[in-house]
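Provenance and format

Records in this collection were gathered into a single text stream. Each protein contributes a sequence line and a token line. The two records reproduced below are adjacent in the stream.
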Amino acid sequence: MSAKGEEKRKKSSNSVFFENAYHDIYALGDVYRTVFGGIGKRIGRAFYTFFRFIFVHIISGCKAFGRTVKRYFLSVVSEGRQFFSGVKRAMPQIKEAFKKKPARGVSVFFKYMGHAFKVYEKFNRAVLSTLIPAAAVIVLFLTARAMGGLTFAVTVYVNDTDVGTVANETAYKEAEQEAEKRFEAMGSDIDIALPVYKIALTTTNALDDKMTVCNNIIGAVSESTVTACGVYVNDEFLCAVNSEDTFNRVKTAVLSEYAEENGYTSDDCTVDFYDTVTVETGLYPDNDTIWTSDELYAYMSGYSVERREYQTEEDDTLETILLKTGISEDRLSELNENLDADNIPEGSVLLIDEGQRNMSIRVTVTYIASESIPYSTVSQYDSSIYVGSTLTIVEGSAGQDVVTYTDTYVDGVLTDSKAEKVRYNVKAAVNELIRIGTKGVSDSQTGVSVSPRLLRDQGGTFLWPAPDNCFWLSQGYNPSNSHYGIDICSSNGSSCRGRRIVSVADGVVVLATYHYSWGYYIRVDHGDGVVTGYAHALEGSFLVNVGDYVTAGQQLSSIGTTGNSTGYHLHFEVWLDGTRVNPLPYVYSEYTGISVQ
């Protein structure tokens, strides 16, 4: 066989092998699918049948239970109705029995109740099965609420004596240490036996405080004690005096004398000890170490470092005083505020060392100051106002605050200056609002910008303030008759009521109010000192507010006859640098055709 034939035979043999293997694997898979597919279906049908059986029986059980409960409930309701009907029928007999003889009434009542419990067994059983648990819940709730305020504590016994109930052992130890401090400070010994603790259930409010337990400990272990008032400085025991009244009298005397000596007697000064001083009345050892009022006064007003003073002698000068006392000139001036270094009279008493008090005294001086609150200036550039003109829209005004301050002195030394306590505003600051002109008016010949007040000289005029056929003057400008404007009315003899009042030029409304003489009145500032006024406007006709920018010809209001007026007309004025001038040259033109009646 040739090589090609052999190769062809091998390829044919390999192809048959793979084809047979494929058919064998496919057949095996088909067997597995048939066998296990049938098993899966049977298992699925078995699970479905089982769960369906369980579900059907649960539903049936629930329905049966519901029917049973319903029948029971209906029977209870039926018996309940019969029970209350029976009670209603029996009540007259029970009442009658009570009237005749109370004992018989009681007997009849219990006899009937016994009969009712037998006859209406389901109803009574249902009622009792509800009431008893409900009552138990209520009792449980009330008990828990009462127990909520309780806490576990310890009752302490010393020498078989109950000295108090405290939160824990630490609280007792603090009271025990306080008792030891009292005796140690007063030169006596105290022997406190080991305490015995017993658990107690009590309320928080019923716990004894440290001082109460301290007094009880002293009473339990000491044979000779006395009731006195302990003085504590910053919680440290200082001494004991006869009573709290003794302490208060001495304290008042010390502070009052200090205030009078240093000029702190006004109601604005508060004088008190710098340290925290408290008193506690209780049991103390009965010995001669209890301070008298004089001893307490000497301590509270005394010095731990002596105060030094120097009385000047003949021919003493500042230099000799500094040399003798060893003090600096600055310190001498600080301690003696009114010292005149160039003139120190003989016999003057100078403070050299203020010393250190046993109990420092603090003075708080309270004073009220009025402070001005400055206003700010807000500037706005306005192209409708001529260059060189500044228009004030809102006048600025300063505000005012009232402030309560305190200065604090400790032993005469200023320790805290101008501490702010209260501040309230009595007047708010009003910011100034100004508009700065950027508009120029060019002269056709020179090209130089001119201001509004020169428009008349340059051949221009303002607009007529009442353009709706109101060109007649009922009265002209006449300062000799106190008439500083022109009165404008209808040119055809009809009423000009309600006709337009317009701004004669661009500007800002600076006034829109009611005046007793001018009536409803508007004033417009056109810049560069030129202001126009429009009076006797119709009530309710204002169309602008203060601060509004208006243009030439814009309606301001309507003609009326408010204020000091005898008919409908517009009183028009022109102010130049605060002085009223004749308005006619500013608004006259041949076109208007105005005339004076």
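Adjacent record:
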Amino acid sequence: MSAGLAIAFIFCVIFARFFYLQVVYGETLVMRACDQWNREIPVIAVRGTITDANGNVLAGNLNTYSVFVRPNAVTNTEYAAIVLAGIFDLDLDGLRSKLTKKGVSEITLARNASAEKIEQLITYDINGVYFARDNSRLYTYGDVLCQVLGFTSSDGNGISGIEKYYNSLLAGTDGEILYATDIIGIETENNAVIYSPATDGSNISLTIDIDIQLAAEQVMKEVYNSSNAKSVSCIVLDPQNFEVLAMVNYPSYDLNDVPRDDSETLNSLSRNAVVCDIYEPGSTFKVITAAANIEEYLNGNSNAFSTSYIFSSSRTRTVDGTTIKCWSDHSNGKHSNQTLADALNNSCNPCFTDIALSLGSETFYKYLTAFGFGNVTGLDFSGEAVGMLLNETAVRDCDLARIGFGQSVAVTQIQLACAVAAAVNGGNYYVPHLLKSITDASGNTTEIQSVFKGKVISEKASSILASMLEGVVTEGSGKKAYIQGYKVAGKTGTAQKFENGSLAAGKYVSSFVGFFPSDNPQYLALITVNEPQGVYYGSAVAAPAAKEIFEDIIAIKNIQPYE
């Protein structure tokens, strides 16, 4: 009885092993066998191009190749080493060693080889050597949009920026040419060749307008040089649908000469500060506080201030034992009899402290959340920061007071640009985006539509606010952004930087957010100057830059004056 059980057990073990090898592991074994008796030449898919909204190529491909060697298939190693080393400028001894090393099935000899070198290679007809097309990127405008476009690795895959975010669209699917060999890898005679074609990557079009981008790049470089700033940034947005028309970070680097051997420098220069870095916005944030107040007043909230309300002319407010001051000393009647419009013109902190405290944390935070603060905008770009917004349950009156005029809160530039756009475009918040359309390998095009996120304030409140912000440019701190005949509106900002929990002496972020025309915004720009030297006020450093960019847009688009 026991012998029968033992035989049955052994039979079951043998059957289980047979089942595993034939069924479970069978496909893997077949693939291994095929790999031993077959060789593949890759057919590299053409990486899709990246263009701007008008079809101008931003990222295309060079005609280059990768070269491979199968040492077992090389019939004359010494001859092959001498020829290949000469063509591709390789160390002869090193190459000879690689070609004679045992157990190596394939060597990557060269990448990004020119067509001229491949033509040379073909004339020698060396067994065991073959080549495949590369995807070497060529960036038409060099350093322009470098932090947005990003770059690819040596094997053609995107590793930063748009190249990374949309790599699955751009990359396509590689094919192969499969042919039979003997056990040591030498091609057999009269063997069948199997060709599996590649599927090329999709071409993508961005919302970027290269003419506006180039204009903004030039202006921001001039600001960087004239202010001796640590860095400068700019985003130009279509406030009607939140398409990104331009995005500038400077200093920059040449995408055709990426400093890959210096990771620290590369990480610094390739970082898209507009999307990934946060800062205290200062007075540009007063646009949001004013928007919340106007909307609440129109909704009948008795804690909100009317547009004709006269704020206290006192220079200071004391909250939780903390004294908040206006930048002006209020002498000689300065900042007296201020309405909300005057407070925006004068950028008077105490008035916005009054608004935030009067609205209260629950109401004010409702607007902060609706305007996207404390969360990502959803821009199609990796690494977007969420900003910093104190939890509503933990916020104190002194914190709320400071948030009202842009302190004790940190934002990204994309967050602030979108928030202001929603505040002045009729109250409509959209998801910002860089992708405009996709055209696949078959020529089918898919247009990307803007995604509506929500209504933040009413059209009436938005119109009132936009009119007030036009006054900031015609009468207030934003005068250096004024353009005769065009309804430019905006708000200046100057925020002292915090480092290690305290104010950093002499370090400021100067900014200006502006748009035009004020009664029907078509273009919005946020200028940010990080640590300008000498004159540091946003009104003096950032507002003139916005004016130059707007004047360039007016010329590019041939926009006629309104007056």
